[in-house]
């Protein structure tokens, strides 16, 4: 059993003894701590209600029952929107004028996992300071349950998926007429989660001609590892090579990440989801773009093509959103296929990404592989170095900065070193003694070699054991 408590929420495998896994006791404490936080921090304009949505995991109904019972026991009304995507839940918080929201999803983790992700009244994730306060309240059991006359109630509303689609169709840069005229045939892999219902509805609403469905029954039994990476999308790639569709889309269980497959079965590249959508948005709405330090340099290249500025944030959606607000960015996201489009809302949203990508593709009148070839080509390597618990990681990173001081250094989140045609980013894990190493170069061999070079540098400094 595994239980991970962090400032971004609580995540774990289902079952186990108290404090060993994600079970009813741990869920009650953490939910009550969150409710106590919301009670003391929500604005006067927010209603005393909290939105709860979940993905299709087998544990979802059980966890939802515990969470909603705890929230009503803390005196909050609960708007239960049922099975819903993460971005749908975020939008529902704003629409309901709620004081917050909880999304029950472990995102790309396998089926034995679940998690509670916490939102503020703007439908955005709590920041690190706020998350730490929730953890402290839960750990200290510093909360008080409501008396009989102050208990909350549960309001069931299953129409938020439909409302989400309606909001996408109203976006200025979504052109359903152009998509309909293109008569696209689209294949989708929704890993038997909530995307299996909402993606077909979205695609038909956009005017897509045919939708070929893989794993669209939202019963929560994932047919493969649910993270939308190339090695997990072989069935979708095979379908594409048979000429069934013009483009393939794959999403994770909570539909905030979007992977794209070309008409020839080749991967578009999760790093390039944001690149393509940004290219389209910036061509019509000049402004800044934002991604995190571990995302592809291709976004910077495309942004500069449009005469615009590209900014980097620390890794994590909450940091990307903060940087987008600071710079007034018109588009942003992360290189894992996460698109954040402020004209819709400040959250990663695969549904918005699909609508914008199809509009872009329809207007370009290209195949998906031709569109991919129009962008700068980079290759990424992701490795890690395992350290002993006694290792002073901060001191080691300072040594790395000194060694590469002749190059462009960014240290707002670990250390990123930019060379003329490649970069490498080192950042320590918050939960285990490792340093993650992301590198990007013009070829895969060069990206792997750059990462390996930094591994050897770290081993020289720390004399620790490495693995990739």
Model description:
The chain has 468 residues and is α/β, with parallel strands linked by helices. It contains 15 helices and 21 strands. The chain has helices spanning 24-41, 60-73, 86-95, 128-140, 160-169, 176-182, 195-206, 234-241, 270-284, 298-305, 317-327, 350-364, 368-373, 393-403, 444-462; strands at 3-6, 9-13, 47-54, 77-83, 98-104, 113-119, 154-156, 185-189, 210-214, 247-251, 258-261, 289-292, 310-313, 331-334, 338-340, 379-386, 408-410, 415-418, 423-428, 434-441, 466-467. The strands form four sheets. A seven-stranded mixed β-sheet has the order 1-2-6-5-3-4-7, sandwiched between helices. It has a six-stranded antiparallel β-sheet with strand order 17-18-19-20-16-21, covered by helices on one side. The model is unreliable at 464-468 (pLDDT under 50).
Strands, count: 21
Strand percent estimate? 15-25%
Helical content stands at 25-40%
- Structural class of the helix and strand makeup? alpha/beta
The average pLDDT score comes to 94
Q: Number of helical runs? A: 15
Distance between the ends: 25 Å
- Report the major sheet: 7 strands, mixed
Shape field: globular
Strand line-up in the sheet with most strands: 1-2-6-5-3-4-7
Q: State Rg.
A: 22 Å
Task: Give the low-pLDDT segments.
Answer: 464-468
């Amino acid at each position: 059993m595994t239980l991970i408590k962090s400032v971004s929420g609580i995540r774990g495998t289902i079952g186990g003894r108290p404090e060993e896994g994600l079970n009813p006791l741990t869920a009650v404490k953490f939910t009550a701590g969150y409710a106590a936080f919301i009670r003391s921090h929500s604005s006067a304009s927010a209603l005393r209600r909290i939105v709860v949505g979940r993905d299709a995991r087998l544990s979802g109904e059980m966890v939802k029952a515990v969470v909603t019972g705890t929230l009503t026991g803390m005196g909050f009304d609960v708007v239960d929107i049922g099975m819903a995507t993460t971005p749908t839940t975020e939008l529902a918080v704003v629409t309901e004028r709620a004081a917050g929201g909880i999304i029950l999803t472990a995102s790309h983790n396998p089926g034995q996992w679940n998690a509670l992700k916490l939102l503020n009244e703007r439908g955005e994730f709590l920041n690190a300071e706020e998350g730490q306060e929730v953890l402290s309240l839960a750990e200290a059991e510093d909360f008080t349950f409501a008396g009989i006359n102050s208990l909350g109630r549960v309001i069931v509303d299953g129409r938020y998926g439909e409302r989400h689609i309606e909001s996408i169709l109203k976006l200025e840069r979504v052109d359903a007429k152009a998509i309909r005229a293109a008569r696209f045939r689209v294949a989708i892999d929704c890993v038997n989660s909530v995307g299996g219902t909402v993606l077909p509805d979205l695609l038909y609403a956009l005017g897509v001609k045919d939708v070929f469905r893989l794993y669209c029954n939202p019963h929560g039994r994932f047919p493969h590892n649910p993270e939308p990476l190339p090695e997990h999308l072989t069935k979708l790639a095979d379908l594409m090579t048979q000429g069934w569709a013009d483009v393939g889309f794959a999403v994770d269980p909570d539909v905030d990440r979007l992977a794209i497959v070309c008409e020839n079965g080749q991967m578009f590249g999760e790093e390039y989801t944001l690149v393509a959508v940004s290219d389209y948005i910036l061509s019509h709405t000049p402004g800044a773009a934002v991604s995190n330090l571990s995302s592809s340099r291709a976004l910077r290249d495309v942004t500069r093509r449009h005469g615009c500025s590209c900014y980097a944030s620390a890794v994590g959606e909450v940091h990307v959103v903060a940087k987008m607000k600071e710079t007034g960015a018109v588009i942003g996201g992360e290189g894992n296929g996460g698109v954040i489009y402020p004209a819709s809302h400040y959250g990663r949203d695969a549904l918005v990404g699909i609508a914008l990508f199809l509009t872009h593709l329809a207007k370009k009148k290209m195949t998906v592989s031709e569109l991919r070839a129009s962008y700068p080509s980079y290759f990424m390597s992701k490795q890690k170095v395992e350290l002993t618990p006694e290792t002073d990681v901060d001191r080691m990173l300072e040594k790395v900065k000194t060694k590469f001081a002749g190059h462009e250094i960014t240290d707002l989140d670990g250390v990123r070193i930019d060379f003329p045609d490649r970069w490498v980013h080192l950042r320590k894990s918050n939960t285990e003694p490792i340093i993650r190493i992301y590198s990007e170069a013009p070829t895969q061999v060069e990206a792997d070699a750059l990462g390996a070079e930094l591994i050897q540098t770290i081993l020289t400094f720390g004399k620790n054991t490495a693995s990739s």
